[in-house]
Design brief:
Elements lengths: L6 E3 L18 E4 L3 E5 L4 H10 L2 E2 L11 H7 L2 E2 L2 E2 L4 E7 L5 E5 L5 E2 L2 E2 L6 E8 L1 E2 L2 H18 L6 E4 L12 H8 L5 E2 L2 E3 L6 E4 L5 H19 L8 E3 L1
């Protein structure tokens, strides 16, 4: 578990083990002029800021992702037409037998919000390659992306981030367009409701339960399937 964004966890006892890497995996350093090494617990925003302070571009989009490096690798997180795969050089991971592995990004098959890495890997750190630029130019790009995000996505409220993946192989439409066409946007279950700003974001108004949120997710998926014939795939990870 990274920062917990894009994750919905049961209110009941979780029958399993949750591993959360903390301080020892929160280090970040510069190798040479343009390579950054970051632990898997480093926040995406912190990686973006570190790159900014070292005059490296390519990391600007990370300023808009509320997650960690480990989570970003796991789901090939991205926004504004950039993804983790675009800046990743290699990852360091440990498997369930305790073996430490270094895997170059060229050996990883990345897809939209996915990759072919084994499920049992725990990411320890990663190296990223930036492009030398100047501070003002990078800062300006970060500001531009943040304004765009504020305009189009709910912020500073309880949300699990993007709920469903865009069905790029099935439709030219974005997932929010399919939801808007298929679902009454005022539908709610308890305190779980659909954001007025972006209907692929579901909000906990006050005291929504796990069941409330899951009922809303299932309701939306069912309605989109019935209206459009498209089966939505969840981007949010559900632990139950």
């Amino acid at each position: 578990l990274g920062a917990g964004s894009n994750t919905l966890i049961t209110d009941n006892l979780f029958n399993g083990v949750v591993i959360k890497l903390n301080k020892n995996f929160n280090n970040i350093s510069l190798l040479g002029e343009d390579i950054i090494i970051a632990g898997s617990a480093v926040l995406d925003k912190s990686l973006s800021n570190f790159a900014l302070n070292n005059n490296l571009s390519g990391f600007e989009f990370l300023s808009c992702i509320p997650g960690t490096v480990g989570g970003g690798i796991k789901m090939n997180a991205g926004c504004f037409n950039k993804e983790f795969k675009d800046i990743l050089l290699s990852i360091q991971a440990v498997d369930k037998f305790g073996n430490i592995l270094t895997i170059p990004s060229k050996n990883i098959k990345f897809e939209y919000r996915n990759n072919d890495l084994p499920e049992d890997l725990i990411f320890l750190s990663a190296s990223f390659k930036g492009i030398k630029s100047n501070y003002a130019k990078i800062q300006n790009e970060i500001n531009k992306l943040k304004i765009e995000k504020e305009k189009n996505q709910p912020t500073k409220i309880k949300t699990g981030g993007s709920t469903f993946k865009n069905p790029i192989s099935q439709s030219k439409k974005k997932v929010w367009e399919l939801i808007k066409e298929s679902v009454p946007l005022d539908k709610s279950f308890g305190d779980a409701c659909i954001s007025e700003k972006h209907c692929n974001f579901f909000i906990n108004k006050k005291q929504a339960t796990f069941k409330d949120m899951k009922n809303l997710i299932d309701f939306v998926a069912k309605n989109v399937l019935e209206k459009t014939g498209i089966k939505l795939e969840k981007e949010i990870k559900i632990l139950e």
